[in-house]
Amino acid sequence: MDLSSARWKKSTRSGTSGGDCVEVADNLTEVVAVRDSKDPSGPVLAFTPQTWRAFVEHTKHF
């Protein structure tokens, strides 16, 4: 998976205290990538855009 053009955005829920943070790259055509901002060279979770939208919609109910 080529993430060289990924534009990472930190979650607005992460706050500014530097704690547990999630970054999402949703500018890619076929994948939405998610990573831990404290480990930017670490593992990345990859979702289809449809799966990511479903996840986001589901979390709005909590």
Automatic annotation (TrEMBL):
Domain DUF397: 6-60
Region of interest (Disordered), residue spans: 1-20
Annotated InterPro entries: DUF397
Pfam family for this entry, one: DUF397
Name this protein carries in UniProt: DUF397 domain-containing protein
The species this protein was found in: Micromonospora haikouensis
